[in-house]
Design a protein that fits this description.
This protein is α/β, with parallel strands linked by helices. The protein is built from seven helices and 19 strands. The chain has two domains: about 140 residues, Rossmann fold (3-Layer(aba) Sandwich), CATH 3.40.50.10140; about 170 residues, Jelly Rolls (Sandwich), CATH 2.60.120. Helix 1 links the parallel strand 1 and strand 2. The radius of gyration is 24 Å and the shape is elongated.
């Protein structure tokens, strides 16, 4: 009877396929006697195969399971589900952190297991752990030529999210279409694209239910056409005025229709380049009939590329790398 090749199962988010492919290529040289199952790979799941049956059968026989996560994918339910199945099949679960995600942000079941960061030291330790738990040899030559994985996303790309004070939420989920086609929301590496035209509109969250800090609102965008970004405010008297930050308006204030939208003109956003806009909401609070209590939600009309939203009490709540080339918008605007 032929010997069964030890198998390692790799679970990851689809948006991180490129780095996983590089990692598997390295493993295949460093651990030549181990097979690696990657659910997103055609070499692992053959065309025509029943997808879940193939994954389930593989998980039942794996020795080691690598749950690969980053700031962008730490909360992805499928990674957590596959990890739980792997644990139930007695596989050794190793959370592998692909970027600068703090260990403390791991949730269950990953937080129950010792995680490894994919740096030089962590990669070497990971190879040794896989070899030990599969009873296989290591190609020691490759360890002397350890790759640096320059393809790992930079902190800017991997930190994409909605930041409400000090809490970070996944920017790739929670959006709801209110006009146009839902298919025009697409997830990319490091950002999302919202809409193909002004006819496509999305809101986050589906109901204006946030209680986010309101003093400063910032967002990082790449402009491809005109900009239409809205923020719903919640005031103490229960009213819900909106901020309308746009490249198509020319004056500040409640100067148009609908009358509950406070217009904020912005014309300095370059086309085709990432740019951060910071709105000093505190500077215009006196224009509202009641004091502002919170930012309750956002709306975007397409097309717009978006990677970050911040709701903070002070600009210091926005990382320095985003502040360097930011445009600050304060009422009543340029003199």
């Amino acid at each position: 009877m032929a010997a069964v090749t030890p198998c390692v199962f790799i679970s990851h988010a689809a948006s991180e396929s490129d780095i996983i492919r590089k990692l598997v290529e390295f493993f295949q040289v460093a651990l030549p006697d181990v097979s690696f199952f990657v659910a997103s790979s055609y070499s692992s799941v053959k065309p025509g195969a029943v997808w879940w049956d193939e994954i389930r059968q593989t998980l039942a026989n794996v020795k080691v399971m690598l749950a690969c996560i980053s700031r962008q994918s730490v909360g992805k339910p499928w990674i957590l589900f596959e990890s739980g199945v792997g644990i139930g099949c007695n596989a050794l679960l190793i959370p592998v952190i692909l970027d600068d995600l703090p260990f403390a942000e791991l949730g269950l079941p990953l937080s129950m297991y010792q995680a490894i960061r994919l740096d030089q030291v962590g990669l070497s330790s990971l190879v040794e752990l896989v070899a030990k738990n599969t009873g296989t040899r290591i190609n020691t030559q490759i360890l002397r030529e350890m790759p640096r994985f320059s393809e790992i996303p930079s902190s800017i790309e991997s930190s994409m999210g909605v930041y409400l004070g000090t809490k970070r939420y996944d920017i790739t989920s929670g959006w709801q279409r209110y006009v146009g086609s839902h298919q025009t929301l697409q997830i990319h590496k490091g950002y999302i694209s919202l809409g193909k035209s002004f006819d496509d509109g999305f809101r986050y969250p589906p109901v204006d239910s946030l209680l986010a800090p309101w003093q400063y609102l910032a967002f990082r965008i790449k402009r491809t056409q005109e900009v239409y970004f809205y923020a719903a405010l919640r005031c103490i008297d229960g009213s819900m005025p909106r901020l309308f930050v746009s490249s198509v308006v020319n004056t500040w204030g409640f100067t148009g229709d609908p009358t509950h939208e406070f217009r904020i003109p912005v014309h300095s956003i370059p086309m085709g380049k990432w740019h951060v806009l910071i709105v000093d909401v505190g500077s215009l609070e006196r224009e509202f009939k009641s004091p502002v209590q919170a930012i309750a939600g956002f709306r975007v009309r397409g097309p717009l590329l978006l990677s970050h939203i911040w709701c903070v009490e002070q600009p210091a709540g926005i990382p320095d790398e985003f502040l360097k080339a930011a445009t600050r918008l304060s009422y009543p605007g340029p003199s």
